[in-house]
Design brief:
Elements (H helix, E strand, L loop, with lengths): L23 H12 L24 E2 L18 E2 L4 E3 L8 E6 L3 E9 L8 E9 L3 H19 L12 E5 L2 H4 L1 H8 L2 E4 L2 H15 L4 E3 L7 E2 L16 E6 L3 E8 L2 E8 L3 H11 L5 H9 L8 E2 H5 L13 E3 L4 H13 L15 H11 L7 H27 L3 E5 L7 H15 L4 E5 L5 H8 L30
Helix pairs in contact: 5-13, 6-11, 7-11, 11-12
Organism: Aulographum hederae CBS 113979
Protein name: Pantothenate kinase
GO molecular function: ATP binding; pantothenate kinase activity
Length: 485
């Protein structure tokens, strides 16, 4: 009997045109005229941490970020710079810390840099990721950031501790590589709770960054969700919600309010599963290569559909003919048919293998990509992507239904802005909930933990509008920071 999996679009699709997003020049022109009437700012930049708040007033996502980060060190092949920096045109103070979220597969790095080495021009948050297997490259990059920080800012004067660069670390690697990072950099390394950082980071993106959160469908690829307005008493609360964080594994977290959260479940079938199986089956060498391969694949060459069983849909129970009945369900039958034809002297059915190849050639092929001779690597990639995504989507729905949560946010590097992944997850939530629940995605989905760790640097509530805590030592220096223009 067919397993009831939601039927994502089974064939190749052409990306729909995305809505216009303001470029850096568009935003800077608008912000320049708005700045004069903006919220009160300090008369002098506050240089050292412990008394500095991130000013998110006028923040926007730059869609044409330079390919390489504006810092020395590292090689092009050691990291990937996500070209969606967050520009902070009104933050002029020095930031003396960087943050890293080290997971089982990837290390995600966030740091602040000033524009053109000028405090008056504001700055930006930069986003980079390294494979965890190359953690030494990540550490070397942080070493270069430390050297640059010292060149630009020197050392703090006596009585003003904290000016030295500090590393805010989270994820399992914050513990596994703690000694290595501290010994290599010679700086303070603060380890922060992973789940707490995820929630802080997500709340920050939802509340503070425009054009960050969106819904996805093939008909409307990016429909941005407006930010909540704290000044409007009728503005709906963002709570409660379910965060589904998809890294090497998957964690599902019920969030009832700021720092009020519980991990309610998860699954071991996550990004690490996809990465591991595809590396065995296709010979792909990195995660981005695997996702790119899936874009051109046709999973119907590998998966068994409802239509393959019934000849049409099964309307009585709501299954379309394109619904996946069994992931990789065609593999065994087609492989057996190919073997029989080969034994009869007909070669493999699809002509990928010809008679007369030596055993050595067969062995070499197996080493490169496993025994996938009858199937294309692209089709295998797409099928496995759907299998993992469908599984995550269904489990996410079940947890949301159990706990009465309407909004479901998907984060983690597994998504990577990949449209097939988002479409599958979104469709799964819509399918299982009969349209009653909504899946949300983020443009910086892989950096929730690292941004949360970045924001945990003192004082409390760093980076939030109207966030001066009593006793923070700021007095009336900032009446309002990070408010909207």
């Amino acid at each position: 009997m067919a397993s009831q999996q939601p039927p994502p679009s089974q064939h190749n699709t052409t990306p729909s045109q995305q809505p216009h997003i303001n470029t850096a020049d568009d935003e800077r022109g608008r912000l320049a005229s708005d700045a004069a009437s903006s919220a009160t700012t300090p008369s002098d930049p506050i240089k050292y941490p412990g008394t500095v708040l991130i000013n998110v007033q006028g923040a926007f996502i730059e869609v044409e970020t330079p390919e390489l980060p504006r810092t020395p060190g590292g090689t092009v092949h050691d990291y990937h710079h996500d070209t969606s920096d967050i520009v902070l045109p009104n933050h002029k103070a020095v930031v003396s810390h960087i943050a890293v979220d080290i997971g089982g597969s990837l290390a995600k790095l966030v740091y602040f840099s000033h524009e053109h080495k000028s405090l008056e021009a504001g700055g930006r948050l930069n986003f980079l990721k390294f494979e965890t297997d190359k953690i030494d490259s990540c550490i070397d990059f942080m070493r270069q950031l430390k050297l640059r920080h010292e060149q630009l800012n020197g050392h703090p004067p006596p009585g003003r501790p904290g000016g030295e660069l500090c590393i805010m670390a989270t994820g399992g690697g914050a513990f596994k590589f703690y000694d290595r990072i501290k010994d290599a950099l010679g700086v303070e390394v603060l380890r922060e709770d992973e789940m707490e950082c995820l929630i802080i980071g997500l709340d920050f993106f939802i509340n503070e960054i425009p054009n960050e959160v969106f819904t996805y469908s093939e008909e409307s690829p990016m429909s941005f969700r407006p930010r909540p307005d704290p000044a409007d008493p009728l503005s709906p609360s963002i709570y409660p919600y379910l965060l589904v964080n998809i890294g090497s594994g998957v964690s599902m977290i019920k969030v009832l309010g700021p720092r009020n959260f519980t991990r309610v479940g998860g699954t071991s079938l996550g990004g690490g599963t996809l990465w591991g199986l595809l590396s065995l089956l296709t010979g792909a060498r990195n995660f981005d290569e695997m996702l790119k391969s899936a874009e051109s694949g046709d999973n119907t060459a590998v998966d068994m559909l409802v239509g393959d069983i019934y000849g049409s849909g099964y309307g009585k129970i709501g299954l379309k003919s394109s619904t996946i009945a069994s992931s990789f369900g065609k593999v065994y039958r087609m492989k057996r048919e190919a073997e029989r034809e080969a034994e009869d002297g007909g070669g493999l059915a699809n002509g990928d293998r010809k008679h007369g190849r030596s055993g050595d050639e067969e062995e070499d092929h197996g080493k490169d990509g496993g025994d996938t001779r009858t199937f294309k690597a692209e089709d295998i990639s797409r099928s496995l992507l759907y299998a993992v995504s469908n599984n995550i989507g269904q489990i996410a729905y079940l947890h949301a239904e159990k706990h009465g949560l309407e909004h479901i946010y998907f984060g983690g590097s597994f998504i990577g802005g990949h449209r097939q992944t988002m479409n599958t997850l979104s469709y799964a939530i819509k399918f299982w909930s009969k349209g009653e629940k909504q899946a949300y995605f983020l443009r910086h989905e892989g950096y929730l933990g690292s941004v949360g760790a970045f924001l945990k640097r003192q004082p409390p509530n760093w980076g939030r509008r109207n966030s001066l805590d009593a006793g923070a030592g700021m007095g009336n220096v900032l009446e309002r920071i990070g408010s909207r223009t």
